[in-house]
């Protein structure tokens, strides 16, 4: 296993730069913007813009240019905060939920799809196509315009921007916005009440989500969404949008030098993707590693709805088996080389997460690897500021939806230790450019380790 990457702070730390003054910060932004523009020009790439035809994403940039782009993102934010001053930053920062509210309504009513991206529409014509009244449509549109979503080139004339075009054309992104605005946002608004009534905040059925949707002590979020096909589909597409986004691509794990799969491949070993959804990680791995057998486990409905065949490559598809398995019951695929949990453990508070790990134990052979692929939180200020904000927000999303959490390396170590002293914690690595870490433990049972298995099932 490679050295954990926690040794050096990877990027400038927010707050430190302000000591050099506003002008120095502004000059730095100018320098980095010049480098980014020069690269775009030299490579005949369009300049970033809000125009409807602008590129929706930056192309893959060489690392030094990507670094310039990141510097612009952190430093402009810091410069703006300094220019506002702390009182005004707080005063107006706490209003950002209103932007989410406006995006929620605009996205829910599919406003972006109501006129072609290449033309404009009058507010009156647009209003005639929705059940929103003219005043409310106009006021919500004009708020989202302040975020670069739609524009009003002349009074009462609405035009698309690059962002509104994405809401019209990218169904996964529309689902991401919808899931977060319509499921996560109400859940977040109920976290305070949840924490007051259930301060321990561990139960899946006592989260902000449950308070928001009147399911306290009845059912967890996954059950609520699973019962409503449209909401379940939206969450699935939202997750697909996240996985396709910068820093979350499956390729980071598939191509990681330290994922240890070269040896598993050489031995023709078995890889179990626990809670593997429709098997997209298995597919990418199977294309790359030609001898590994894959078992993709998920709940029955998910397994039933997996694509058949799972991929176009028959050699890969033939090595992927789907299996309905509930990870809150004893693991049924015995003796595999790797048990992999991607975006699973962060969905659960510690009592549940320990139970998931303990349920693996009866299946584990000595030397079996358990790999958790989740965020691993660094010490405050050790992450670049944008990544830190994304990861800490995700941590709070997990609280709001599921009373769950992102974890630090120490918390992962403790999770394995609590599950069994047969787990030997190997450490955490993080591929370059990726927000997710590879957290690994080996099963090396001591006398009595197995006897402790699944002994504590109370939650
Ligand atoms: C956040 S998704 C992660 C999916 C996939 N591992 C990924 O990386 O995108 C959680 C997955 O766990 C599955 N799941 C939820 N509860 C489960 C359970 N009790 N047993 C097995 N799978 C479960 C869900 O159906 C879903 O596919």
UniProtKB/TrEMBL annotation:
GO terms for biological process: methylation. Residues 270-419 form the O-methyltransferase C-terminal domain. The keyword Aminoacyl-tRNA synthetase does not apply. Keywords: Methyltransferase, S-adenosyl-L-methionine, Transferase. One of its GO terms (molecular function) is O-methyltransferase activity. InterPro entries: COMT-like, COMT_C, SAM-dependent_MTases_sf, WH-like_DNA-bd_sf, WH_DNA-bd_sf. The keyword Ribosomal protein does not apply. It comes from the Eukaryota. It holds the Pfam family Methyltransf_2. SUPFAM superfamilies: S-adenosyl-L-methionine-dependent methyltransferases (SSF53335), Winged helix' DNA-binding domain (SSF46785). PANTHER family: O-METHYLTRANSFERASE ELCB, PUTATIVE (AFU_ORTHOLOGUE AFUA_4G14580)-RELATED. This is S-adenosyl-L-methionine-dependent methyltransferase. It comes from Lasiosphaeria miniovina.
